[in-house]
Amino acid sequence: MTIKAMKKNIIRPAKQVWDYTNSQRMDNKDISPGIIFPKRPKSEHKLKLIEKLFEDHLISVAWGEETIYERRKRL
After folding, report:
1. Pairing of β 34-37 and β 60-63
2. For 57-66, what is each residue's pLDDT tens digit?
3. Residue 30: is its pLDDT beyond 90?
4. Residue 54 CB: number of other CB atoms within 10 A?
5. Which residues are paired to 60 by β-bridges?
6. Eight-class DSSP state of 62
7. Which residue from 54, 34, 63, 45 is spatially nearest to 71, judged by alpha carbons?
8. 3-state class (DSSP) for residue 11
9. Helix (H) or strand (E) segment spanning residue 4
């Protein structure tokens, strides 16, 4: 998938996260927008790109199969 296609594919879920987040904020709930994917991409480049694209929308990304210790090692 090209970078342009990835950007386009991330806009939709980013909008969905913010739509849901804003609905919760209207109920005076404390929120932190984020998205959890079940598996990490095999490519480290794609992983970093996906995280960066969501970060550009102020949304945290977590990978379901990645432990907090594995995440800390990557950072």
Report:
1. parallel
2. 999 999 999 9
3. no
4. 20
5. 34
6. E
7. 63
8. helix
9. helix 3-26
